[in-house]
Amino acid sequence: MLQSGLCHCQSERERIHKVAIQHENQIKELIKKQNIMAGLIGYYNPELIDHIAQCEQRLMKLNEKKLTDRDLFIVVQHAMINKPCEVLDLQSNEITSQGITILADALRTNTTLKTLLLDNNHLSDLGVSYLANALATNNATLKTLELERNGIMDEGASSLAQMLQTNSTLTNLYLSANQIGDRGVQLLANAIADHNTSLKELILDNNPLVTDTSVQSLIHMLKHNRSLQTLRLWNCQLSDKAKVDLSEAANSKKDFALLC
């Protein structure tokens, strides 16, 4: 009885600790949004608004505009709500994890955006987690997500792997030139192998921390997933033997493109 009571107390402490962490994270996120809102007071970007007005509705090209987190409120309002686009190009700007919360919130209710290009920003693992949470259950429209060169590590890959377990819409995921290692690749591969039925293209080029340790998980993915058509692993740290093993697994799949 004493042992049972001690186990119950330990379990209760763990539950309370978990709830406390969740509340703490919610408070931190609220503070971040409040900080962004405070920075917006008196903020106006007429050039951005004018550029969005001139863009065709389907394709919104806002790459290399030096956009910051504050500009994302304008982007969401004018490019996703007032003028709902299908392709939103935000590559090579100055967007961080703080600002991406604004875009993530919009994705939860958006029904028009099919392609989101966020390459070469500063999202980090935290920003990726916000996007992944929004796409896990709330979005049934987005098909292509590009996150190349965003400082993503294994934690960010873990968030994306969790999203891929429930998302049934995303078909193309670009993760080149990040810092994803074997653990991150293993989590992605297992999620795609065992849970995902929509992803067609996974791009992992130029992740120098990916080694032969990932190969068995990738082979498992190739053997068990039926939707994936392209896997790209150029410029990773794979041995010749690992490449041969992957090629043998890929050869058993019809019309499959393995590039490593």
- At the fourth CATH level, what is the homologous superfamily of the largest domain? Ribonuclease Inhibitor
Report the average pLDDT across residues: 90
Distance from N terminus to C terminus (CA atoms, Å) equals: 59 Å
CATH architecture of the largest domain: Alpha-Beta Horseshoe
Q: What is the rounded Rg?
A: 20 Å
CATH class of the largest domain: Alpha Beta
Strand content: 5-15%
Shape: elongated
Strand order of the largest sheet: 1-2-3-4-5-6-7-8
SSE run: HHEHEHEHEHEHEHEHE
- CATH topology title of the largest domain: Leucine-rich repeat, LRR (right-handed beta-alpha superhelix)
Number of domains: 2
> Structural class of the secondary structure composition?
alpha/beta
Helix count equals 9
Provide a quick synopsis of the model.
The chain has about 260 residues and is α/β, with parallel strands linked by helices.
Structure description:
By secondary structure, this protein is an alpha/beta fold. The protein has two domains: 39 residues; 215 residues, Ribonuclease Inhibitor (Leucine-rich repeat, LRR (right-handed beta-alpha superhelix)), CATH 3.80.10.10. It has nine helices and eight strands. The chain has an eight-stranded parallel β-sheet, with helices on one face. Helix 3 packs parallel to helix 4. The longest helix has 39 residues. The chain is elongated. It starts with a helix and ends with a strand. The model has no long low-confidence stretch (mean pLDDT 90).
